């Protein structure tokens, strides 16, 4: 069974790697340069997929947080913690690529537009989420506090999405793409989403392993170690 799981994981990462290679080839040799923005526009093929994956990772935090509050199973907390770290990582990439694009398009690294502001708030919310998890030691208490926080933090996600549609914003709500651009964007979306899922599952396994080691360390001397589900 473990061999089959290992093969599946290796196949998953191999496919992700092939998608990355294909996405790079399409980006540099297949996708035309946008006439107005020039070559810097190509950062869009990373920026948008990473933004989508950021929202998806935050959704995993929200679902896992609700799952813990419902079932009180610690594996939900491990999943939420893993997805929280990925949300911070991907949101950081969103902000950085957005700043590079903004400097080229608007002549400034940052402007306090609604979408950029809510995106920064989203990043801060999940940075605090990760910090809070590291500061609370009792596992059940940490899981409960993190779960409530994870549900509340997710409220910023729809605000990020709706802000540019409901409020005046320098950030474009949509971009006209040629067929070649749409195909390239699709490949990048699939690759980045798979990358997000792979990192979440890797981090989740690390969290589960750390919890098992924590349980082992807490066992009194001479007491058999149980590997039952937390």
What do you see in this structure?
With 230 residues, the protein is an all-alpha fold. The protein has one domain (2-213). Helix content is 77%, strand content 0%. It has seven helices and no strands. The protein has helices at 2-30, 44-71, 74-106, 114-135, 139-153, 156-166, 179-218. The longest helix has 40 residues, at 179-218. The radius of gyration is 20 Å and the shape is flat. It starts with a helix and ends in a 12-residue tail after the last helix. Mean pLDDT is 87; it is low at 223-229.
Q: How many distinct beta strands? A: 0
Give the overall average pLDDT: 87
**Could you say how many structural domains there are in total?**
1
Contiguous helical run count: 7
Percent helix range: over 70%
- Specify Rg, calculated over alpha carbons: 20 Å
Q: What structural class do helix, strand and pairing data support? A: mainly alpha
Q: Spell out the helices and strands N to C.
A: HHHHHHH
The shape is flat
Q: How would a textbook summarize the main sheet?
A: none
β-strand percent reads: under 5%
The poorly predicted ranges are 223-229
What is the CA–CA distance across the termini?
A: 22 Å
């Amino acid at each position: 069974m473990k061999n089959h799981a290992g093969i599946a994981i290796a196949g998953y990462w191999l496919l992700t790697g092939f998608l990355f290679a294909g996405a790079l080839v399409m980006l540099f040799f297949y996708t035309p340069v946008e006439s107005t923005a020039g070559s810097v526009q190509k950062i869009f093929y990373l920026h948008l997929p990473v933004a989508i994956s950021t929202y998806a990772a935050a959704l995993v935090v929200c679902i896992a947080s609700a799952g813990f509050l419902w079932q009180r199973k610690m594996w939900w907390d491990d999943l939420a913690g893993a997805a929280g770290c990925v949300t911070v990582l991907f949101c950081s990439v969103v902000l950085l690529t957005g700043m590079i694009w903004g400097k080229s398009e608007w002549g400034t690294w940052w402007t306090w537009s609604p979408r950029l502001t809510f995106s920064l708030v989203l990043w801060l919310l999940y940075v605090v989420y990760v910090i809070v998890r590291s500061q609370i030691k009792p596992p059940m208490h940490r899981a409960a506090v993190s779960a409530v926080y994870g549900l509340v933090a997710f409220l910023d996600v729809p605000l990020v999405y709706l802000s540019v549609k409901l409020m005046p914003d320098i950030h474009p709500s949509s971009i006209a793409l040629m067929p070649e651009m749409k195909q390239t964007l699709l490949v990048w979306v699939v690759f980045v989403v798979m990358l997000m899922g792979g990192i979440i599952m890797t981090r989740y396994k690390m969290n589960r392993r750390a919890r098992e080691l924590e349980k082992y360390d807490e066992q009194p001397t001479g007491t058999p170690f149980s590997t039952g589900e937390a």
